[in-house]
Design brief:
Shape: rod-shaped
Structural class: alpha+beta
Number of helices: 9
Low-confidence stretches: 81-86, 225-229, 237-262
Strand order of the largest sheet: 2-1-7-6-5-4-3
Distance between the termini: 198 Å
Strand content: 5-15%
Helix content: 25-40%
Mean pLDDT: 73
Radius of gyration: 67 Å
Largest sheet: 7 strands, mixed
Length: 262
């Protein structure tokens, strides 16, 4: 019986020892595994299918489109008419707007010829400059009527260009003074001369009612007052013949009183 218990105890000890030995082996195995795990790099898990796919692009958010703005109606701006260019000036206007013709303009206004040369028509004005009037020493002594006649002698009733005057020479040009024309000729240099010595310095200034020829002197009418004939003692004749001679003598006497101050 004692032997039996001894064997049982021994078996228990062996089983305990065996159990302890098994646990020790497991502990050793676990320790080795821990040591190996510390030296090996951790395993990278295989990539998942989600990692290889590109990220999903979110669908575009629809933007609300606005209708184009209709511009507000603007008030029509009234058009400003472009300034119109005034037509050519009249002969009188051209003369009186130029300081070189101050004296001539003054005489046109004094005599009333300004209105004639400012109205419609076709005239030629031979226009003396201020210097030209200064050459006429006693012009201040002329009466208004004499100045009127002098200025009328410088106006032709039709348009005469410089070329027209060249074609007329030698010849005459009618003026506003009846039966008292201007003699037109040409000088040695081929220039137009009026009454033998007056030159045209600025030709063909066009105006709305004619043309202006600027001259360097005042044109003096070529008037030579007739001289009174020597007295003749009439022979005795009939009364009718005596009256005829008396009338003739009176005619010359009146012509001798004609003069033109220059």
């Amino acid at each position: 019986m004692l032997k039996y218990y001894s064997l049982l105890c021994l078996a228990l000890l062996v089983s305990v020892a065996a159990a302890s030995s098994t646990d020790q082996k497991k502990a050793i195995i676990n320790l080795r595994q821990l040591q190996q795990g510390a030296t090996r790099p951790p395993k990278t898990p295989p990539p998942t299918a989600a990692a290889t796919r590109p990220p999903k692009t979110p669908p575009p958010i629809p933007v609300a489109t606005r209708p184009p703005k209709t511009p507000a109606p603007t008030e029509a701006v009234p058009e400003t008419p472009s300034p119109t260019i005034a037509g050519p000036q009249s002969i009188a206007q051209i003369v009186c707007s130029n300081n070189d013709f101050f004296t001539l303009c003054s005489y046109l206004e004094i005599t009333g010829l300004y209105g004639k040369l400012n109205s419609s028509g076709t005239s030629t004005l031979f226009a003396p400059t201020n210097d030209a009037f200064e050459k006429l020493a006693n012009v201040v002594d002329l009466t208004d009527d004499e100045i009127m006649g002098l200025l009328m002698y410088h106006v032709a009733p039709n348009i005469l260009t410089y070329n027209n005057l060249m074609m007329i020479a030698p010849g005459v040009v009618e003026t506003m003074v009846p039966a008292l024309p201007i003699v037109v000729s040409t000088g040695a240099d081929g220039d137009v001369l009026l009454n033998g010595n007056v030159k045209i310095t600025t030709p063909d200034i066009e105006a709305s009612n004619g043309i202006i020829q600027v001259i360097d002197q005042v044109i003096i009418p070529p008037i030579n007052p007739p001289t009174r004939p020597a007295p003749v003692t009439p022979e005795p004749t009939l009364m009718g013949k005596s009256s005829k001679h008396s009338s003739k003598s009176s005619k010359y006497s009146s012509m001798s009183n004609m003069s033109y101050k220059v």
